[in-house]
Specification:
By secondary structure, this protein is mainly β. The chain contains one helix and nine strands, in the order H-E-E-E-E-E-E-E-E-E. Strand 3 and strand 4 form a beta hairpin.
């Protein structure tokens, strides 16, 4: 149970980190005077779509910034997040990136891809794999990058569980 919670926290942390990085790259400044408005669509208590708008302080007008779409499995666990950026010239949402989560008995895999306009599809960029033993304890985590030339995953880093820092340890 602790490992399932740990892996869930790792997955959630990764998603939150990517969201924060994405918002930072879009110019969203939490410490500034900007006012951001979320428009969430929920289904069965889960957010399935979130649009982020920036509100102009002087005029009150809203400008679209970013949109997220979420998909869940039968157990209500996140399986996919698609990120869209606003194209103000064409006044439409355009795909930017994709995060896919796959789970099975002993492995959780998080794959990231970026949208490629020429291909009109997503191109994988990186992958994180978390392996657990039958007692559901984290054994190993792997980090991969996609080799654009060979179109194969290349291992970047492998960490055994004894070397993984306890990032959620209690401190006093």
């Amino acid at each position: 149970m602790k490992t399932k919670t740990f892996i869930s926290k790792v997955v959630l942390s990764t998603i939150l980190f990517l969201s924060v990085c994405g918002m930072a790259s879009a110019g969203i400044n939490a410490a500034g005077d900007d006012n951001f408005i979320n428009n969430d669509v929920t289904k069965d208590g889960k957010v399935i779509s979130r649009e982020i708008y920036k509100q102009d302080q002087s005029t009150g007008t809203l400008s679209p910034i970013r949109k997220y779409e979420y998909e869940y499995d039968a157990l209500q666990q996140l399986t996919k997040k698609i990120v869209y950026d606003w194209n103000s010239i064409e006044t439409k949402w355009e795909k930017a990136s994709l995060l896919s989560i796959t789970r099975n008995l002993s492995e959780t895999s998080i794959e990231m891809a970026e949208w490629v306009n020429k291909k009109q599809g997503f191109s994988p960029t990186s992958k994180f794999v978390y392996v657990t033993n039958p007692e559901k304890k984290l054994v190993t985590q792997y980090t991969y990058k996609m080799n654009k030339r060979t179109k194969e995953w290349e291992l970047q880093k492998s960490t055994q569980s004894s070397k993984v820092p306890e990032i959620y340890a209690n401190t006093k």
